Amino acid sequence: MLALLILIYNTVYVYSKVCVMANLIDFLQHQNLVWQGTENAPVSRQAYETVSTGFDDLDKQLRGGLPKQGVVDIQSQAGIGELRLLLPYLRGQTRMCAVIHPPAQLNAHALFHQGVDTGRFLVITPNSPQEALWAAEQCLKSGACDSVLLWHGDLEIHQVKRLQLAAQTGQGLICLLRSDIKQSASLPVCLSLKLMPHDLGLTVQITKRRGGWAKPDFILDMSSNWPELTSQSKASKSAQVVTIAQALQQANR
Fold it and tell me: Is the pTM of this model over 0.85?
């Protein structure tokens, strides 16, 4: 009889511990603090709505494109083409795009000639990083914005969580464009990219992706989109200059 009671007690004890652990893991997953690979994640967390980046190679690496809503972290040096990476995505938007604290003044004329509806752009120049975060959160919550582009430095986990919640509320996407980052902690974002300059465009590293693993670097060829900004175009122009010079010499002889 005593042995039976001990067995029942141990069974109930183990079962209670398993239930507590299962609830804890479920809580951590919903807080985006536990990441699972696609093949291990529940079906409800494997599939999420995406929107094309406009680059076929990048869409393939991301299994569809950028998340339609959430937080995307883009780490790069300033001015290497991080905005060009987002231009095809921005062309297809139907709501506003809030641009907060850009490092330089946007060229509306250039954006217009890239097919971007500048009438949907809202540029915000806050006085402090705190005001920038507040403005980003309000733009996301409003539901008026498809996307928010926020240039910022180091961020705390609780700050990113607030942005994530605001993005879910307004069904929008915020891209954090960050450079000169000092912190090494991982942030609870849907997607994290590291960009480096390359002669053909950009070298892209996917360091975090919801439902998937980090991926090695790959080259994103932008020469077909912006041939004048790649090394191939520069080499071609140099060749043309030499050819013209030689033609002039021949004509003078």
Answer: no
